[in-house]
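Team,

Forwarding the record for the chain on the shared tracking sheet. I've put the sequence and predicted structure together so nobody has to dig through attachments.
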Amino acid sequence: MEIKDLAGLSEPATKLVELIGKGTGVLYEPTRIRREAKAQADALLVKTGAELEADDLRRRAAQRLVAQETKKQENLEAVLDQALRLVSSDRKPSGDVDADWINRFVLEAQEVSDQRLHAVWAKLLAGEFSSPGRFPRRLFRVLKDLEPRQAEMIDAIAAKVLRVEHHDGSSSAFLHSHIRQEWRLGHEQEQEVLAEEPLAEASLLKELGLIEPNDFIFEFSVEGPVNPSGLHLSRYSARRIAAGADQIIPAHVQPNFLRTKGAPFVNGTPVINKWTKLVTFDAWKVTSLGESLFALTGRTPDASYLTQIREHLRRAGMVFEDATPTATSATR
C-alpha cells in the first residue's frame, strides 16, 4: 500500500507527517517525493558536472553524496510509510513528541536499509507518537546496530517476558532460568530442581543492556507451624507472576509437600512445629531499556510458557487462587 497524498490521511497521520517534516526541514509527501527524487538527483549531477567538468574527483564525490542522500531519503520514507499505517485514525496522541527525540530518530532511521528492520523503526515512531515519552532516546543506540537475526531473536524472547509482583507491591520484568524448591527445618534442608531453562542469548542481551548482568533471585515462601490445611505465603514472599492479563497467584502449599522424606503428620498430629519452604527462581531481570524494546515487538505473552511455570509450581505443592486477571495487577 502506498500513501498517495496528504489529503487522504487521517488527522493523527497528518500530524505525524508534519512532525517528521520538522525533523527533516521538508514537508513529507510520499508519492511526489519519490517521483521527483531521481529527476532532482539527475539535475544536481548535470549542474555539478557542468561546473566541475575538469575535476573528475569532485564529480565522483558529488555522485557519491547524491547516492548516499537519496538512499537515506528512501530509508526514511519506507519507515514513515509503515508508521503511518500503524497510527490509529481514531486515537489522538496524548501529547507532543520531544523535538530532540524526532531529530535523533531521523538521523538514525535514515541509515537503516534492511526492510525487516524498517518495521521495527516504524513501530518505534508510531508508539512514541501515540504515547510521547514512552520510548527513551537511548533505545536508538541498541536499534541502530541491531542485525535482522537479532531482531528476530528479540521478537521471540519477548513472548517469554514475565512480571513478578513482590511483597511490597513493586514488580519486576524477568526471564526465568532455573526453578528449585527447598525445605528447611532448623539446620536441615533439602533441595530439588524443578526446571532448568538456560538463556542461550544471555550474553547478547547483557551486551545490549536488555537484562541486568547479575542474577535476579526471588522466591515464593511459606513459613510457620504445620497446618493440615496447608501453609500460606509468608510476609516477604513474592505474590504473583503475570504474563499480560494472565496470572499465577499461589495461595498456599499443601502440607504433604513440605519435604520429600517423611510426613509432617502422624494420625493428624503435627510431628514438627515449624517448616520453611521456598520455591526459588534464579532469573534474569529485564532492564527498563529491555522492557521498552520488548514492548516494541508487540508480542503477546506465550500462554503455554506461563502454563509450564504453573505446572512446576504445582509440582512443589502450590495451590492457586482462582482470580480474575486484571490489567492493573498484571502490569503494576
